[in-house]
Amino acid sequence: MDLLRGLREKLRFIESMHQQATASFVEKKRQIENSEGDFDSSGWDPDSWDGTPPFLEEWQEADEAINLLGQACLSLVQSAFKEYLDGCVALTSRKPQRKGKESWFDAYRRFFDEQLGIDWHKSPVPLDSLEEINLARNDAQHAGREFGMIRYRDARHQERFPSGIFADAMFTTMAERLPFFPVPLKVTADSLTEAIKRVADFCAFLDGYR
C-alpha cells in the first residue's frame, strides 16, 4: 500500500483544482488593475469621484473569492494529511488515544513516538509549521462572523504566528500595536503551495520509516 503516492496525488489534484478555480477571479483582478476589457476605466470622470476607485467592489469580491477558495483547499490539504496519518495507523493493531486536553495532532505525535519509535521532532519540517496549517484550517471552518464572508484568526493562532503565512499582511502591523485587533485569515496561492510542500515533505519523512 503506497500511502505516500496516494497523498501526493491528492495534493497535486488540490493544487491544480485551486489554480483552475481561481483563474477567472485572478484575471478579473488583473483586468481591473490594468483597466482592460469590461473594466476599462479610461472614460471615468475624476470630477465625479466620491472616494471610491472604479470597480472597487468587483475587485474586492474577486479577491475574497480567491481567499475563500484557498481556505477550502487548505482544509482539503489538512484532511489529506490526517488521512495519510490514519493510513499509517491502520497498518498497526493500535490506535492513538488523547490524554486530557491533548489535540489530535499531539495524540498522533505521541503515538508515533511511543508505539512506532518515530520522533516527529527529527523531521526536516518544523512541527510548528504543521500546527500553523491546523490552526488556519480551524479558523476557516469556525471563525466566521454574522455578516460577510471574512474569517479571522483566533487568539491562539494570532499569538503563535503573529506574522504567519495565513495572516492578511495589511492588518498584521496594526495587530502588533493593538493585540486584540482581529486579523483576517488569508490563504493565497503562495501560502497554499507552501502548506502543500510542508505536508508532502513531512509525510515523506514518515514514509522513510516504513
Short description:
With 210 residues, the protein is mainly alpha-helical. The protein is 62% helix and 0% strand.
Structure description:
This protein is mainly α and 210 residues long. The chain has one domain (3-32, 56-91, 112-207). Helix content is 62%, strand content 0%. The chain contains 7 helices and no strands. The protein has helices spanning 3-34, 56-90, 104-116, 127-142, 155-160, 169-177, 189-207. α1 (3-34) packs antiparallel against α2, α1 packs antiparallel against α7 and α2 (56-90) packs across α4. The longest helix is centred in the middle third of the chain and has 35 residues, at 56-90. The chain starts with a helix and ends with a helix.
The largest sheet is:
none
General shape: elongated
Helix-strand string = HHHHHHH
Tally of strands: 0
How many domains? The number is 1
SS-based class? mainly alpha
Distance between the termini: 11 Å
Query: Mean pLDDT, as a whole number?
Result: 89
How much β-strand is present in the residues? under 5%
Radius of gyration: 21 Å
Helix content percent band = 55-70%
Count every helix, treating DSSP H or I runs of 4 or more residues as helices: 7
Low-confidence stretches: none
Keywords:
210 residues; mainly alpha; elongated
Write the layout of secondary structure elements.
Blueprint: H1 3-34, H2 56-90, H3 104-116, H4 127-142, H5 155-160, H6 169-177, H7 189-207
Helix pairs in contact: 1-2, 1-7, 2-4, 2-7
